[in-house]
Amino acid sequence: MSGRVLRIAERESPGGANPLGGCYGIGTMDRERTRIFAMFCISPVVRFGAPTLLALGLAGCAAAPSSSEAPSPPSVDSGDASSETSSADQASKAPLLPSALFPGEAERFVGWQCEPDQSLVTAHGEDTLRLWSAHGAYRLDPAVVASGARYQQGDLSFWSKGSEATVESQYGRLKCQQNMRHRALTRESHPGVMFQARGNEPGWMIELANDKPRISMSLDYGERQVNLPYQVKALDNDAGRVVLTSGQAARPFELRIEAGACFDDMSGQPWPARVTLEVNDEVYRGCGQGIAP
């Protein structure tokens, strides 16, 4: 029997065709030998036929995808995404920040230590006084007074004489002593910046561009420099509050700005905004100021 099989395997079928599609590397020559060989090796072909065998073969083997299969969706190229983000960033404009974050026409911020225990910040303009406390920001108009300078808004009044001041409201009276003053930041000294904030331990600083929604961060004493687009999560003009988040999901951060008396914890300088920056699971706290043109 084995001799006959070898002789069959050594001969090709007419025209070199192989009815088994080359699956076993053997062929047949005539009908008689086809019956003999099929009965010995692949009798299922006689019952099911070649098309059925082909179908079973595709089902049982890992075949390459056919050209009729739907192509896989293209992967997102980070370079293209960056270009699109950059284009959108250039087309957008920076938001208008609440006026309570700015000194107005004032050239200086003045810090006051008051009794009972409270700290205030003021900025004197030509026609108004801006006042910041732990509870928010206020704008007072000039009022008639025999001596010194007095400003009032409703039942809130601020009356200063030299380095001393009296603040009255429906909640009571404060006796205040001026303890520090410094010049407000200007666009001339900080071109292209509409808001700046800084803090200590570790030293950090952020700046918001005045023409588009981008933030520059200098973190950990300047060891890390970050420049990102941002989006406005919340903005309340009346409360003087702004919350900004990252414009890039892969580099998240949150910046909270709130109008209120703030004092640098090392120098004691007074500022009109309290600032909290959260990035990379770290929290930075400090003070800031809006910078008008």
Automatic annotation (TrEMBL):
<protein>
    <recommendedName>
        <fullName>C-type lysozyme inhibitor domain-containing protein</fullName>
    </recommendedName>
</protein>
<dbReference type="Pfam" id="PF09864">
    <property type="entry name" value="MliC"/>
</dbReference>
<keyword id="KW-0732">Signal</keyword>
<feature type="compositionally biased region" description="Polar residues">
    <location>
        <begin position="80"/>
        <end position="90"/>
    </location>
</feature>
<feature type="domain" description="C-type lysozyme inhibitor">
    <location>
        <begin position="112"/>
        <end position="171"/>
    </location>
</feature>
<keyword id="KW-0472">Membrane</keyword>
<keyword id="KW-0564">Palmitate</keyword>
<keyword id="KW-0449">Lipoprotein</keyword>
<feature type="region of interest" description="Disordered">
    <location>
        <begin position="66"/>
        <end position="94"/>
    </location>
</feature>
<dbReference type="InterPro" id="IPR036328">
    <property type="entry name" value="MliC_sf"/>
</dbReference>
<dbReference type="InterPro" id="IPR018660">
    <property type="entry name" value="MliC"/>
</dbReference>
